[in-house]
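Hey all, sorry for the wall of text incoming. These are the two entities for the joint prediction.
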Amino acid sequence: MATPLVVSEVAKSFTMHLRDGIKLPVVSDVTFSVAAGECVVLGGPSGIGKSSLLKMIYGNYAVDTGQILVNHQGRVVDLASADPRTIIEVRKRSLGYVSQFLRTVPRVAAIDVVAEPLIARGVPASEAREKAAELLTKLNLPEALWQLPPATFSGGEQQRVNIARGFITDHTILLLDEPTASLDATNRAVVVGMIAEKKKAGVALLGIFHDEEVREAAADRILDVQKFSPRKAIAA
Amino acid sequence: MIETPLLKVNDVSKFYGNRIGCRNVSFELWPGEVLAIVGESGSGKTTLLNCISTRLMPTTGSVEYHMRDGSYRDLYRMNEAERRFLMRTDWGFVHQNPADGLRMTVSAGANVGERLMAIGDRHYGKIRSTAIDWLERVEINAERIDDQPRAFSGGMRQRLQIARNLVTGPRLVFMDEPTGGLDVSVQARLLDLVRGLVNDLGLAAIIVTHDLAVARLLSHRMMVMKDGNVIEHGLTDRVLDDPREPYTQLLVSSILQV
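and here's what came out:
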C-alpha cells in the first residue's frame, strides 16, 4: 500500500500587498511522510509555521512549490496542483481535519454537525446520528446539549463537537490542529484513546499538540518544523 | 458513470458601449457544485450572472449546457421558446428582491403551482399538495397558502421565491444576492435553509454575493471579480484564507469581526 501522505520539497511564502508587497517566507524545503498507523507530531515554538503546514496540506493555503501527495482511494493525488473539485473529493473521502475552532453554522444542532460528514458520504441519516451520539457520549458532552446549535457552547464543548465531527469518518489521513487545547484532563485522556484507536485502524495522523502529556502519549515521532523555517536563526 | 460538467462558460464578455460589463470569463460548473461570485458593486458580477443565465446576451463568447438528454447545447443559439422552457423547468433564478421573482398579486400557492403547470401538471389537488409540501420545506405555515406574497415579510417572500424555484426539481439555480436586504437573524435562517436544500437535492448553484461569510458557508468554489475581470478563482477556503491578489487581500481584511 502506498504511503498515505508524502510532502515533498514544499515552500510557502505570503506576499502582503497591503503592506507594500513585503514577502513573508513561511517554510521552505519541507519534506516528510506519514505512514499508515503512525502519528507524527509537529514540534517547534509558536509562529514557526506548524498550523500553516496543516493548512497547506488541507488546501486552505496554496503552496509556492513542491508536492503534497495523498493516497486517495488507491491513486496518488498531488494536492498542491489539484483543482478545487479534486480537493473537495479528497477531503470528503480521504483527508480529515480537526481545526482549533469550530466554524458553526447557524441553527444546526450539535449532533447534526457531527453526523454531517457521514451523511455527505451517503450514510443514512439515522445511522450517522447513532454514530454521532456514540462519539459525543464518549467525549462526555451532556446529552441535553445535543439538539442545540453549538454557537453558544463553551470552548471545551465546541472543541469536543469538533473532535467528534473529525473522528466520525474513516478518513485515512487525519490532521489535528491542537484538538485538546481547551479540554480538561479526563477529556484529554479520551482523545488520546481515540487517537490510539485511529492508529490501530491504520489511519495516518499528523498533529499539533502543545500539551506535553498528550504529545508524549500520541506521538510516534516528532517532526521539528524549525528546520523548515527561515526564522530558525532568530528562534534558536 | 463518468461525470461531465453541467455548464461550460467560454470566454464570455459583455460590453455596454465602450464600458466593460465583464470580460473573457471562462469556467466550468459541475453537477452539485456551488460557485460564489464575489466583488464590490459594479464589479460585473450581476452582468456575468445575467449573461450565463441568458437574461442578457453577451457581446462575445458561448455557454454550453448539458441537457437532460445528454447533449450539450449552446445557450445563445437556442430559440426563445427552448430557453424559456429551460428557465422554467431545469433552472431556477432567485432574485435579490423577491418582488422581481414572484407574482405579488396571486396567492403563495399559485406562485409555487405556476411553475408546475408550466411543465404540464394539471391536477389541481396534486399541485396544491405539492405547493403545501414546499411551503413547509421553506418553513412557511401551510395556512398561508392562499395569502398573497404582498402580505408576507421580506424573509418569507424570499423563502417563497426559493420554493417557487425549486418545485420543478431544477438542476441549476442562479442566485443574485439572495440574502441582501434581510436582517441578520432572517439571513441566518435563509442560509441554513439554502445550504440544506442544496445538499439534499444535489443542486448546482451560482451565487452572486458581496458577503464573504455567505460565500464561505454556501460555496465550494469562488470567483473574485474586479472591474469586469475575474481576478482570482479557486477553492473557497483557499481564496478566503490565502488570498493572492491585492484586491482580494483588501476584501478579506475588510471583514468586520464580531
